[in-house]
Amino acid sequence: MNKFERNLAKNKSQELLVEGASCASCVNKIETALQQVKGVEHAEMNFALRTVVVTGEADVDSLINKIETIGYSAKSSHQASDEQLLDDKEIADEKYYAQLIKQVWIAMGLGAPLMIYGIAGGPMTVDTSLARAVWLLIGLLCLGTMYFAGKHFYIGAWKSFVNHNANMDTLIALGTTTAWLYSMIVVLFPMVLPEMARHVYFEATAMILGLINLGLALEVKARGRTSEAIKRLIGLQGKTARVIRLVAGKEQEIDIAITQVQLNDIVRVRPGEKISVDGVVVQGHTTIDESMLTGEPMPVEKAEEDEVVAGTLNKSGSILFKATRIGKDTALAQIITMVKRAQNAKPPIGRLADVISGYFVPMIIIIAIVSALAWLNFGPDPTLAFAVVSATTVLIIACPCALGLATPMSVMVGVGKAAEAGVLIRNGEALQSSAKITAMILDKTGTITEGAPTVTDIIVIDKTYTEQNILTMAASIESGSEHPLAQAIVNAAIKQGIDPENASDFKAIAGHGIQANVNGQQLLFGNQKLMLSKHIALNGFISQAQQFADEAKTPMYLVVDKKLAAIIAVSDPIKTDSVAAIKRLQASGIRVVMLTGDNRATANAVAKKVGITEVFAEVLPAEKANKVAELQAQGEIVGMTGDGINDAPALALANVGFAIGTGTDVAIESADITLMRGSLHGLADAIAISKATLQNIKQNLFGAFIYNVAGVPIAAGVLYPFFGLLLNPVIAGAAMAFSSLTVVSNANRLRFFKAKEH
Question: What is the pLDDT of residue 131?
Fold first, then answer.
């Protein structure tokens, strides 16, 4: 399985498509209900996508049954490909949009003329028999409009009532039904009401349904744009692959669908073609454009034994590669899954909205009742008419759609934007916390530097040995290690045609070096700490090692049979863009700290070159997490960026762990955010996008809260005693509908966000 999201397999997960969820309060009810199912560990719903991801051992049928028992319907999304799901969603959205527009025309076709008639001064009362007959006909037409243009609201409200719930449908159904029933009482039984209260509100019922459906239609249209990042990722997948197969006993190259590619198939890729599945080059040499996955513009050279990734573009040569990961196991498929999961995730700030929404609808119903009672007992004549208008307006204006969309819409766009920049965000907490980071710890090797050290100097101290002897012994003792410095030694030996010899009694001394026996000789190879702990006389060569360290090289001592034999210096070049990326972090107010197990002099030399003033040097692997905790104890919100196995504990402990995508599986699995390319600009981009997304969420939540906090009192009539102003239910319907559109449009602004040029 691919390293980017191996932990997806740790917990069985199900994704369900939910129908009937109409507002934020639905989200809370669905999540709560699913978490009551035996075997469910966690359930998280994305209101914008109308999907819910459930982790745990519960089977899909029990999950669907639970959702149906609370008044909604659901189906599994795992039976189809990502592309098919997206196509199905787009088709469904287009169908829903067309249906809503039809309902808008039906409702406004009746409501608009009535409203214009009322504004023009036409009587809205039943003072004559003819007027009563006309209004009765209009009332029946309004009832038909309620059925054709609003039945989905009434069905949803009834399902919620049967299941002892309340949601947006409840508010709309109560508001429009109250206005219609009151108007029909005025028409059929006018004598039971005071003369001043004989006023009909059929236009309000029709216009409210028309405006709310119009708002929903515009929301569906705008919401479709938030899936563009997923569309682009899916679009990277090739459709066919040219494989070498035995046909009639002969090897032939044939084109097949990528779904038919099998593990270990040999695949031919020609210039200009996409890599169809993940694999390893077995023949040929080429350059691959990986920018669509990593954001790195420069093509990467590929030769035999190099890995190629599905979705990338072959630029120059023709190659053969062996398929190593196919289908949903490819890196691209895993990235798509990871982005979808992250888009579904909720940052902590979004959960607050869900909690509030869970209580919001019942509170609004209570406020509407209290408002009506206040008008009946303390309002001017006609008190009953005023009571009906205020209660209806409160119910309509308070629908919490905008509140439910505020967070998921921004998260969807922000996570997609990050993916386009080669930044894979694992969860909502990481998205929110990244925006608040005050201190960033950067591992040196492979993060600030290339992570590909080379041997620069060999100082032979014991003249009984040659440089070749020294390199042979060093390579022999290091051949079993995966540390970058060890690889530099081994690579230097290979370049000189030296074959490492077998080492015995091998022992790694964490943070110090290694010891082993080679050809009967006891060897020690490591830093000054190792020499001091083993009581090795350095005979004044410390100054030579110090000089190497001052040049940003790492000096290592080789000891043969307890006698110093040589000093080998290794240099790891600094990445070309590390200085600029670190300046970006510092310019945003982040305290940047370098952490390394290297000696202090070398660490300080590297830090000076990249503009870092604070360094944790000579840190043992087990102590890296302690440095994270040390900064956290100072009140810092700490980010940790690394690429090695020994970085994993620190990555896990940090408030946000960033793994370099070119690093190890363990580091990536321990991190919250993966930077697909090796550049630290990806880190600066991730933080910039997170800040922009969090700011967008706050704008949406502020707008939604202010809308409801200000709108409900005005709808209840708080301005009437001072200005004689009572909000019209039609205006309330328009405001409610367009509040959702405002939130969706604001979230879509993130699509145009650009991190600082670099």
Answer: 87
- Please report, to the nearest 10 degrees, the dihedral formed by the alpha carbons of residues 712, 716, 721, 723 taken in order: 50
183-189-193-196 Cα dihedral, nearest 10 degrees: 60
**pLDDT tens, residue by residue, 85-124:** 666 677 777 888 899 999 999 999 998 898 888 777 777 7
Strands 13-19 and 51-56: antiparallel
pLDDT in tens, 574-596: 888 899 999 999 999 999 999 98
Round the CA-based radius of gyration of the chain to a whole number and report it.
34
Select which of 354, 443, 572, 685 is catalytic. Answer: 443
* Predicted TM-score (pTM) of this structure: 0.71
The structure tokens listed for 146 are 């309620």
Which pLDDT score is estimated for 102? 94
Query: Mutual orientation of helices 348-378 and 383-397 as an angle, nearest 10°?
Result: 170
Q: Which two tokens stand for residue 355?
A: 């909690």
Going by C-alpha positions, the residue among 151, 197, 199 that lies closest to residue 176 is 151
Separation of alpha carbons 708 and 727, rounded Å: 14
Could you give the CA distance from residue 286 to residue 276 in angstroms, rounded to a whole number? 16
Strand order in the sheet with 521-526: 454-460, 563-571, 553-560, 521-526, 513-518, 504-509
What one-letter code names the amino acid at 26?
A: C
Please confirm whether the linkage preceding 400 is cis (ω < 30° from 0): no
The side-by-side arrangement of strands in the sheet containing 319-325 is 250-257, 240-247, 266-269, 319-325, 278-283, 307-308
Structure-block tokens of residue 102? 């039809």
Q: Is-contact 74 68, C-beta < 8 A?
A: yes
Whether 88 sits among the annotated catalytic residues: the reply is no
Contact yes or no for 539/564 (Cβ under 8 A) = yes
The ranges of the chain with pLDDT < 50 are 1-11, 663-664, 666-667
CA angle 360, 362, 363 (to 5 degrees): 60
Where are the alpha helices (H) located in 45-201, listed in sequence order? 60-69, 82-119, 129-162, 168-188
